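Can anyone check this?
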Amino acid sequence: MNDERLFPATVMPDEDWWHALWPDPEAVLQAVGIEPGMQVVDLCCGDGHFTRPMCERVRTGKVWALDLDAELLARAEERCAQHPNFQSVAGDARDLPAHITAPVDFVFIANTFHGVPDKVSLSKAVHAALKEDGHFAIINWYHRPRETTTVLDQPRGPDTELRMDPEAVQAVVEPAGFVLEKVVDVGPYHYAAVFMKTTGC
């Protein structure tokens, strides 16, 4: 998809190495704190690698899967077709509050935040979409040289200069009205920075 609205350096990877990188997406969701009954947004959901286990994990809750790329969103829809708590949304992440019917408990974004041009503005959109004390989890590549992050014997991920350590993520997310709650390892090359919404924004 050639769309100027798409965030740079956030192309969906081939499915084989996506699965090699995260063979157990359910464990990632558990680690960041997504629980049964929650209302959750899978922001920039791609092909739904995390969305389907998210639907299974929240059970009686609901999952909104948002992406601009119609082809990827269609793949997510196919994966989640058997889950009545799934809702697909074709739209821009920066317009998140306009795409959901009510504030949610949790917003999850994987492998995309590094390419967002205005990270504070996106964080403010997430803040507006969350309930009080809601959470925002960002899955990011550790700030390591690209040649050292190999998957299936090839260097993978964004260019080294685009990668962010947790402190850099904290510096741009907290001004939008969040406080960093925890940082957890979620793969050989990734961490999750989990923020809680505060009322100070």
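Reply from J.R.: I decoded it. The chain has one domain: 31-197.
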